[in-house]
Structures are given as structure tokens and as C-alpha cells.
Design a protein that fits this description.
The complex is a heterodimer.
Chain A (H helix, E strand, L loop, with lengths): L5 E6 L9 H12 L5 E6 L3 H8 L4 E8 L8 E5 L7 H4 L6 H10 L8 E7 L12 H4 L2 H24 L5 H5 L9
Chain B lengths: L2 E5 L10 E6 L5 E7 L6 H5 L7 H4 L8 H15 L6 H33 L10 H8 L1 H22 L8 E2 L2 E2 L5 H30 L2 H8 L8 E6 L11 E5 L5 E5 L4 H4 E4 L8 E4 L16 E2 L2 H7 L6 H14 L10 H20 L19 E8 L2 E9 L5 E7 L1 H4 L1 H15 L8 H12 L5 H5 L8 E6 L5 E7 L3
Parallel strand pairs in B: 6-11
Antiparallel strand pairs in B: 1-2, 2-3, 4-5, 6-7, 7-8, 9-10, 12-13, 13-14, 15-16
């Protein structure tokens, strides 16, 4: 069975308070996109493990917790190069997510491109709890709607590009104009 | 006046650690501390939870070895409920666990260890990484590494419900069996894993054993300690990751102790030092003599080399051949060379792959008799497995309602902590010389001393930064305070 072109991955530990916000957003996105050709996943991995979650897709949207000193609930939409400070993307038993992507590409792996990260500023990612703090809980619905909307847009672009016979993942999702239709 | 060199943060290590090396006035190394500024707290979170939930909860300690915690926890839950899983359930667990070992050991070798050998211990750090390894061994090998990992995690997903953080083990057995169609896929991956492990051993042979400088590094005194060794063994004293008795051999290789998991408190005790939050397990019947090695010191080692030293052999034919080759090459048992841990790790990967084939072709593996329903009131139980990073204990106490009222976890990295500190200090004293600048390459060779153990301190400390104020004071041997670390303390 062919996999859909777009994957959404909610990242986090379900028992570390706000660290789970990516999982909560993914739960809601799954409901919003129940009939859409996208995959929604949840994971608590980084590095190669995260690479494996997005391998084979045209585009990936990641949702993760961030501790950057901003007001809790602040949500930033980042490209991979802007998200190196996120703990889960920066280090995983010795290899960062960015390094893992480079390894995958060097080895001919089909790696999603673009990779967009929704970084949600959290208040507490260290206390053992299965509850989100109120300011973080308050933004889950809005972020889920934004993520779902972007996923729909990316999936549509991928379908159009596929219809035009373009083989470039960049061209399919519009990062670069498609100049070489088959 | 003494000087201080810090390596912080340590690279290619899960969790956080800090090495501090203290130089005497003449520039030689007086002492070295491998400090863990993190605090345990996970056990308390488990209190009040139903015992049957702990296999899924405790694996959240860590994203690197959740399968090990899932297995140890399931066995502790079996013991707490006084229930014996059916043979098929045990085989399914061991099959999952063997696939995990293949993926985990391969990841450590190629991503964490190989850069030091394939690219070189003093090479430019920008090149001394997995991309440098692939550049040296070839893209095709890189593709094989990625494919093997993906295949192993497919097996984990088939058996455990998820590729990471499995949800299959319950008190008394498994929640899911294996269909014939799934079995065929698992068997195919298992056979490919055997070939991958054989190739990996060939890479090690070519790169390390074929290079006199590296072989000298492995067998030399810089990375050598004579300690006790502990590991799980089966009825024939062969290495086993999932089941059996714990066996301890002394520094001459003679059996010192052999006991059931439930007796671990009769043999293992923990020592506390004021400069680190991680405790030092040691052999109770030898005693704590400080951070020293030798037959009089209760410090013991766990993880791949320790398991091979503590056993009489491997239970599968190809791994047994490699086991014999390693001891023949390195001068017989036990091997005290810390860097031989890498070779032992690859031998274990081959054993795990062969064991996958054995289990995937076992006629019982597709049986639907996968659970014995518990009927007893849960009381107290101990579960032990061999995690990739060493012997892992889970010990639970339950109240009359089956809720955990006390939990004790001793993880592989904890068991190795004393030995890791020894190794770091000796490497620092051997490599850093008066009048010679300690450049990055030299400091990396100090890091190699602990990297061989594949430590996971996030896991070992069950870290909960922010839970309570932390205060660490580090002193020189004469008691003089040289550094004060605090979190949440003014």
C-alpha cells in the first residue's frame, strides 16, 4: 500500500508534563484529518529514530516542546536549521536529528523535505505528570488547526506535482519551482 | 596551585556527565572525577501505580533502551504476581529482546564507537562521526546499517505493537502472539541480521585487529582494569540476555558467586559518594574499598565484555566461534581490556541474531498459549535482564490492592559506575603528561575510556531536574572545595 505524502509527528514523553504537548496536538490533528491522506504519528525519539519516523514521506511536520525562555504557549513555526536548539532534535545518544538526516541522504534514503517544526514553548517539561499546564493546554487546539491546515496544503501540492509527473520532492511541495517535469 | 581541565558536556553519551581532571603542580594528573550532576526520582513516580502498569511506565525512563526496562519490569511483575508465563510467551519476549540487542549494539558500534577507530581517535572532530565512518567504509555499508536498524525495529513493532516503547508484556505473559505470516517476515529479517553481524565483525577485524596501533591500544595498560565481572547465564553457563542465574567471576576468572535474581540484595550493595548523585554498586561479600580495582575491591563490571567473562561460552555456533577467537587473540580469560568491550559487543550482536533465527523457527513460537492469568495477590518480586549496558534489576513491593508501594531500580550503567570512574582516571593519568598540552584529541582518548561502556546516565539517574534543589560540592583529595554546583539553591 502506498503511504501518504505527508507525515505529522507529535514528539514528547507522555509522563513529563508539558513535554507531552506534541502528543496532545497529534491526537487532535488525527481527529481533524481523519479523512485526509496524511499519517499522524506519536514518538519519543530523536536522531536516527526520528529519521526512521519520517523516511519515505515527501514532507514532515513535527510538533515538539520548546524551552527558549518565551512565554508558555508561544508557538513558532521553524525550519530544521532554526530548530537545532530543541533538546529532542539536538541530541539522541550521540547523533542529532540533523546529522541523522545527513546520514540518511548520504545513503540514498528518501527523506522528507521540507521538514517543518512547530515548537511550542512550555512551562514545565521536567515534572512527572500526565497533565499539561494551563497556558500550554490552552494552545493545543489552535496549533492543531494550524498543523492540520498546513498538512492539507502540502498534501494537495504533492498530489498536483505527482499529477504533473514531477519527481522532485522540493518541487512537489513548492520549496523550489518544478523545472523538470517528466 | 592545582589546575583543572573540564570536559563538559561529554559527547556521544546519553544523559549528561562531566569529567574533571585535577592537575598537580608539576602538571601530572592527580585525580579525575566522573561526576553525575543529576538526581534519581523515577521510582517515587511509580509508587501508587498498579503493578501491571509498570512494564509500560518504567520504560519511559529512557528513549534508548525502553525494551530492556519493559522486559525487566515484566519479569518483576511476573514475580510479584507469582505467575509463570507459558513457554511461548517467554520465547516471544526473548525474540523481541534479541531484535532490540541487534539494533542497539549495531547503533553503538557504528555511531558511537567506530568514529574513534575508523576515522581515528585524534582525527578532526568534524570528521570523527558517523558521516566520517560512512565515508571510510562506503555508502553501501551505510545503507546496510540503516536498513538493518529499520528491519530490527520492524520486528519490534510486529512483536511489541510499537517500534519503540513496546506494549506487549503483561504479568503472566504477552498481550499479542505471532501469526505465521508475521513469523515468516521475522525469520527473514533474523537471517539477514546474522549476515549483517558477520559483516560487522569483519569490519572490526579489518579496522581494529588489522591495525597494530589500535590493537596495542586495546591490549595496552591505559584501558585495563582487573575487576570482578557479572552477567546472566543459562543452565550451561552460556550468555543469556533474558533469563537464567547471575554469575560473578573474580579477576582470575574463577566463579565467585552464582545466584537467583531475587537474592541480589545478598550480593550487591550501593555506596554513596558526596560528589555525585549516582550510587556505586559493589559486591557486598568483597566490600567497598574505594575507587580501586583488584581482587580485594568489590567493584564489578557488567555489559558485553563482563557477560562474556562471566560465562563459559555462547549458546549459538557462530558466536561461540567468535568468542573463542577473541579470547585466543587477547590472551585467554578473563579479558580485562576495557576497549575489548567493542569486540564483545559485536559477538553479542551475532549471538542475538542467531538466537532470533532459533526463536523465529521454533515450532512453539506461533502458539496462541501466550498468557497465564495471574490469580495470586501480588506481594514482592524481582526481575532481572541483561540490558545492552549491563545487568538491570527491577524490584517491586505491592500492597494488598496490587499497587506499588516501593520500587527499586539498578540499571546497567549504575553497576558500571565504579569501573567507569576507574577507567577515566587511569586514562587521564596515562595520557596527560606534564608539559604537554591536553588537546582535543587527547581528551577524546580519555572519553574513549567510558564510551566503551556505552553508558546511559539519563537512564541511570532517572533524572528529574527541577524536582528539588540540587547541590553538589566537588573536593580535592585534601577536602578543599574546588567547585560548587547548584540548581534551585541560592
Amino acid at each position: 500500500m502506498n503511504r501518504p505524502p505527508v507525515v505529522i509527528v507529535g514528539l514528547g514523553s507522555p509522563i513529563l508534563s508539558d513535554d507531552a504537548v506534541g502528543l496532545h496536538v497529534a491526537d487532535r490533528v488525527r481527529q481533524l484529518l481523519a479523512r485526509e491522506p496524511v499519517d499522524v504519528r506519536q514518538a519519543a525519539v530523536g536522531g536516527l529514530g526520528l529519521l526512521e519516523e519520517i523516511a519515505g514521506y515527501e514532507a514532515a511536520l513535527l510538533v515538539d516542546a520548546s524551552l527558549a525562555g518565551l512565554p508558555p504557549g508561544t508557538t513558532r513555526r521553524l525550519h530544521l536549521a532554526e530548530a537545532r536548539h530543541l533538546q529532542r532534535l539536538s541530541y539522541q545518544h550521540g547523533i542529532s536529528f540533523e546529522e541523522a538526516i545527513n546520514v540518511g541522504r548520504q545513503c540514498g534514503m528518501r527523506v522528507a523535505d521540507p521538514i517543518i517544526i512547530y515548537a511550542i514553548e512550555v512551562a514545565d517539561a521536567y515534572t512527572f505528570s500526565e497533565e499539561l499546564t494551563p497556558p500550554v493546554e490552552a494552545v493545543v487546539e489552535g496549533v492543531a488547526i494550524r498543523v492540520a491546515s498546513e498538512a492539507r496544503h502540502l498534501a494537495t501540492q504533492c498530489r498536483k506535482a505527482e499529477g504533473a509527473g514531477c519527481l522532485s520532492a522540493h518541487a512537489r511541495v513548492g520549496t523550489n519551482p518544478c523545472t523538470n517535469p517528466a | 596551585m592545582s589546575k583543572r581541565i573540564s570536559i563538559d558536556p561529554i559527547t556521544r553519551l546519553e544523559g549528561h556527565g562531566k569529567i574533571q581532571i585535577f592537575l598537580d603542580d608539576d602538571g601530572s594528573v592527580g585525580d579525575a572525577y566522573f561526576q553525575i550532576p543529576e538526581l534519581r526520582g523515577f521510582e517515587r513516580f511509580c509508587e501508587g501505580r498498579p503493578i501491571e502498569e509498570l512494564p509500560r511506565l518504567t520504560q519511559r525512563i529512557c528513549g534508548v533502551c525502553p525494551e530492556a526496562h519493559h522486559m525487566a519490569s515484566a519479569k518483576a511483575a511476573d514475580a510479584t504476581f507469582q505467575v509463570d508465563p507459558p513457554p511461548t510467551a517467554k520465547k516471544l519476549r526473548e525474540l523481541l529482546y534479541s531484535a532490540f540487542f541487534v539494533a542497539d549494539h549495531a547503533t553503538h558500534f557504528y555511531i558511537l564507537a567506530a568514529p574513534d577507530f575508523v576515522v581515528g581517535p585524534k582525527a578532526d572532530p568534524a570528521q570523527r562521526n558517523i558521516l566520517g565512518v560512512i565515508g571510510a567504509v562506503g555508502v553501501e555499508m551505510g545503507k546496510q546499517i540503516i536498513k538493518m536498524r529499520a528491519d530490527a525495529y520492524e520486528v519490534l513493532a510486529i512483536l511489541g505493537g510499537k517500534a519503540v516503547h513496546p506494549a506487549c508484556a503483561l504479568p503472566g505473559g504477552q498481550s499479542k502472539g505471532l501469526s505465521e505470516e508475521e513469523r515468516q517476515r521475522v525469520e527473514a529479517i533474523s537471517r539477514q541480521s546474522v549476515e549483517f553481524a558477520k559483516v560487522s565483525l569483519q569490519v572490526f577485524s579489518n579496522v581494529v585487529l588489522g591495525n597494530k596501533d589500535y590493537l596495542d591500544l586495546v591490549t595496552g595498560d591505559v584501558y585495563r582494569h582487573e575487576t570482578y565481572y557479572m552477567g546472566l547465564v543459562d543452565d550451561n553457563n552460556n550468555v543469556n540476555f533474558y533469563d537464567g542465574k547471575l554469575r560473578v567471576v573474580d579477576p582470575t576468572g574463577n566463579e565467585f558467586a552464582k545466584f537467583e535474581a531475587a537474592q541480589y540484595l545478598d550480593h550487591v550493595q550501593e555506596h554513596v559518594e558526596p560528589w555525585t548523585y549516582l550510587k556505586f554498586p559493589y559486591l557486598k561479600n568483597v566490600g567497598w574499598q574505594g575507587l580501586v580495582d583488584g581482587v580485594g575491591s568489590g567493584i564489578f563490571r557488567v555489559a558485553p565484555l563482563a557477560r562474556l567473562n562471566a560465562a563459559d561460552g555462547m549458546a549459538t555456533p557462530l558466536a561461540q566461534q567468535e568468542y573463542e577467537r577473541m579470547y585466543e587473540t587477547l590472551g585467554g580469560k578473563p579479558v580485562h581490556a576495557t576497549l575489548a568491550m567493542h569486540w564483545a559487543r559485536l559477538i553479542e550482536m551475532l549471538y542475538a541474531a542467531e538466537r532470533m533465527v532459533e526463536l523465529a523457527t521454533d515450532p512453539e513460537i506461533t502458539s496462541d498459549n501466550i498468557r497465564t492469568i495471574p490469580t495470586q495477590t501480588p506481594t514482592e518480586g524481582v526481575g532481572v535482564v541483561e540490558a545492552p549496558r549491563g545487568t538491570l534489576f527491577h524490584h517491586y513491593w505491592a500492597d494488598e490492592n496490587g499497587l506499588a508501594n516501593k520500587v527499586n531500580l539498578i540499571v546497567g550503567t549504575c553497576n558500571n559506575y565504579g569501573a567507569i570512574c576507574l577507567s577515566v582516571k587511569k586514562a587521564a593519568q596515562s595520557l596527560i603528561r606534564p608539559g604537554q598540552p591536553a588537546d582535543e584529541g587527547l581528551l577524546n582518548m580519555v572519553e574513549m575510556a567510558f564510551r566503551a561502556y556505552d553508558p546511559c546516565f539519563g537512564c541511570a539517574t532517572h533524572a528529574l531536574p527541577g524536582q528539588m534543589p540540587l547541590l553538589i560540592e566537588i573536593c580535592e583529595a585534601d577536602g578543599k572545595l574546588v567547585q560548587r554546583l547548584s540548581r534551585g539553591v541560592e
